[in-house]
Design a protein that fits this description.
Helix content: over 70%
Radius of gyration: 15 Å
Largest sheet: none
Number of helices: 8
Order of helices and strands: HHHHHHHH
Structural class: mainly alpha
Number of strands: 0
Strand content: under 5%
Length: about 140
Amino acid sequence: MEDKVYDILGGIEYGSFESKMSCLNQLDDLIEFKQLSIDELEECATKLVDIVLYETNPQLVREIFRAIENIFLANSSINVSLEGLIDVFEEDEAILANTLILIPFTGQKKYIELVKTYLNHSNELVSKNAAYALKYLDR
């Protein structure tokens, strides 16, 4: 992966709020303008999954998940494990809700039963996202 991409990921992980947002915007540009190879997209998504687990700012959590989703949208054949997110999403409804949006991108039917358990969740966003995930997983 190019040094520029490593610098961007480092900025997302270790920078100030403003730096993290700027780096996320730079990454989004690279994704949107198809300047990353499949391997680079996979590496970025994998790193972002790790980063989001330790991010405490809710706005940054949303933006990191948006970047991961954009990576999946840029190339549906990428292979990124969401297991790290799934392992902890019971502890954080923001992680749970956002991970439910990402699960269909894996195309893995093994998640159907897990997703079904959240259809009647007390948090409306979680139950809505579970219904969305199930709709696309159950095809």
